[in-house]
Amino acid sequence: MPEYDAVLFDNDGILVEPTDRAVLRGAISETYAEFGVDPTSEEVEELMGVTLDTLEGIAAEHGLDPAEFWHRRDMNASEAQCELIRDGGKPLYADVPTLSELSADLGVVSNNQHRTIEHILEFYDLGGLFETHYGREPTLEGIDRKKPSAYYLERALTDLDTRNVLYVGDSGVDVLAAAEAGLDCAFVRRPHREGYELPTTPAYEIESLEDLHAILRGDGGAFRPDMEPAT
């Protein structure tokens, strides 16, 4: 009997390589230009991992409607990523094909735009692999619903009709969102996460998605950070 009924995955850093931050900065600069604003480098950076308060402060300073401004920012960021994918700049990780052999339902929950997630699944022909998928909406509400909020995780759990689910991610917000939803988390220490410190200990720490096979078989003890290694 498998250890979990289903597995949910983050996207960037798990299924596909993270987006080059210069691409996102370019999309943000383009957005400012569309609204007639010549931003400082700090204002560009503030829209990389924005909070609602920060966005509303920037919009007020420049006399912009925050909802309209954010929608354009997200659309531009999504299109820039979709173009990057088409040009080969955001490839799948080599261990993704092993997911088709897992004996569990699968889904995707990401902080990236829903539009971007749908493009990735279509471009890489992954749609048939996942029972459900969520990215965030390009709205002010979507900002507050980002992980570490469990909002989109909860929607996916409803779709899967089970809470016996493992969440797989590569960041602190993934671990925190899983904890908020009451789920175990498997943290994947990809090369870009070398030396990365987590805010709390995940149920498992793995180096490859291939390690999920052992976890789903119930043989995941070797990947539990809280267990003493065998001597």
Q: What's the average pLDDT? A: 95
Distance between the termini: 28 Å
What count of helical segments does DSSP give? 9
Structural class: alpha/beta
Assembly context of the chains? single chain
- List how many beta strands DSSP finds: 6
**SSE string, helices as H and strands as E:** EHHHHEHEHHEHEEH
Unreliable stretches, pLDDT < 50, 5 or more residues? none
Structural Rg: 18 Å
How many strands, which pairing sense, and closed or not: the largest β-sheet?
6 strands, parallel
| Spatial strand arrangement across the major sheet | 3-2-1-4-5-6
Shape: elongated
Percentage of helical residues? Answer: 25-40%
How much of the sequence lies in strands comes to 5-15%
What does this 3D model show about the protein?
By secondary structure, this protein is α/β, with parallel strands linked by helices. Helix content is 40%, strand content 13%. It contains 9 helices and 6 strands. It has helices spanning 21-34, 41-46, 52-61, 66-86, 114-123, 140-144, 151-160, 172-181, 212-217; strands at residues 6-9, 105-113, 132-136, 165-169, 184-188, 204-206. The chain has a 6-stranded parallel β-sheet. β4 (165-169), α8 (172-181) and β5 form a beta-alpha-beta unit. α1 (21-34) crosses α4 (66-86) and α4 runs parallel beside α5 (114-123). The chain is elongated, with a radius of gyration of 18 Å. The model has no long low-confidence stretch (mean pLDDT 95).
Please describe the structure with a list of short key phrases separated by commas or semicolons.
6 strands, 231 residues, alpha/beta, 6-stranded parallel β-sheet
